[in-house]
Write a structure and sequence with these properties.
- The chain is of the alpha/beta class and about 270 residues long.
- The chain has one domain: Rossmann fold (3-Layer(aba) Sandwich), CATH 3.40.50.
- It contains 10 helices and 10 strands.
- The strands form 2 sheets. It has a 6-stranded mixed beta sheet with strand order 6-7-8-3-9-10, sandwiched between helices.
- Strand 7, helix 7 and strand 8 form a beta-alpha-beta unit.
- The N and C termini lie far apart (about 45 Å).
- Bound molecules: adenosine-5'-triphosphate and magnesium ion.
- The site of adenosine-5'-triphosphate has 13 residues, from strand 1, strand 2 and helix 1.
């Protein structure tokens, strides 16, 4: 029997990625101080998986998201997307990369422009990236609103973010993130401002989107229960260091690292 040993090619590979922030002289001290936000992180994400990055406040989660979005550069280390280094992307290549990688933020109030209607919000990335014409863009907006279950779309087109509930606003943010058919989405605490029932509905939506488009997600959270509900694998990050990575159920049921055990004990009720 011939065994098929071909591994699916990873979509994201990080090796030895470090991010050190140098803060300027402060009110209290004249010298510089360095903050090690990410310390020698190596990580591989497979296409189509929902990967959770779990850690307490200040552990470096958003920093990793910002590096992957190329909003900032690592101090050291190599980052690859579909097998190709992205550290030095510039110009057209960077623009193409940015259309393939999107982010959903914690607070849709901050990430959505209050002056744009829902239709304009979802249309904008298509216009900026010069995709399609008036008709195909309109169709894509309708289809995307349908995908995120804001249907019938025409009820929502002309509304503004303040005329929606928090959960609906986050659906608009998700629609805006997926309208360009990206390959990879970083979702940074997307439900931490919503109640548990709405959070679960959004998790189910992310799972549907993953299935429909084979998209890959990095889900950033401080909440192990949320990660357990949503993620295939998780990495636990502590002070910029990934202390443990594995299939979600294994990490939660048989944690190996003392810090993971502490994190689990700190969330006995598993509320989210
Ligand atoms: N631009 C910056 N300049 C200096 N230090 C920064 C900067 N951004 C983040 N840091 C520091 O890097 C560390 C990691 O921050 P980060 O925002 O990645 O944490 P986090 O895990 O996302 O936290 P939270 O759960 O509160 O969002 C923190 O100590 C933070 O103060
Ligand atoms: Mg953060």
């Amino acid at each position: 029997m011939i065994e098929d040993n071909t591994q699916p090619a990873p979509i994201i590979e990080l090796s030895g990625v470090t991010k050190e922030y140098r803060t300027k002289a402060t009110f209290f001290s004249k010298g510089y101080t360095n903050v090690m936000a990410m310390d020698n992180i190596s990580l591989t994400l497979q296409r189509g998986e929902i990967f959770g990055l779990v850690g307490q406040s200040g552990s470096g989660k958003t920093t990793l998201g910002r590096l992957l979005l190329k909003l900032e550069s690592p101090t050291k280390g190599i980052m690859k997307f579909n097998g190709k280094p992205i550290n030095d992307l510039k110009g057209k290549d960077l623009k193409t990369y940015r259309s393939k990688v999107q982010m959903i933020f914690q607070d849709p109030y901050q990430s959505l422009n209050p002056h744009l209607s829902i239709a304009e919000t979802i249309l904008e990335p298509l216009i900026v990236n010069k995709i399609g014409d008036i008709h195909s863009r309109k169709e894509k907006v309708i289809e995307t609103l349908d995908t995120v279950s804001l249907a019938p779309g025409k009820e929502y087109y002309d509304r503004f973010p303040h005329q929606l509930s928090g959960g609906q606003r986050q659906r608009v943010a998700i629609a805006r993130a997926i309208v360009l058919d990206p390959e990879f989405i970083v979702a940074d605490e997307p439900t931490s401002m919503l109640d548990a029932t709405i959070a679960i509905q959004l998790f189910k939506l992310l799972q549907q989107i993953r299935k429909k488009y084979n998209m890959t997600f990095l889900f950033i959270t401080h909440n192990l229960a949320a990660a357990q509900f949503l993620c295939d694998r998780i990495a636990v990050i502590h002070d910029g260091v990934i202390v443990e990575t594995g299939p979600t159920d294994r990490v939660i049921q048989q944690p190996e690292h003392p810090y993971t055990k502490k994190l689990i004990q700190a969330q006995p009720k598993f509320n989210f």
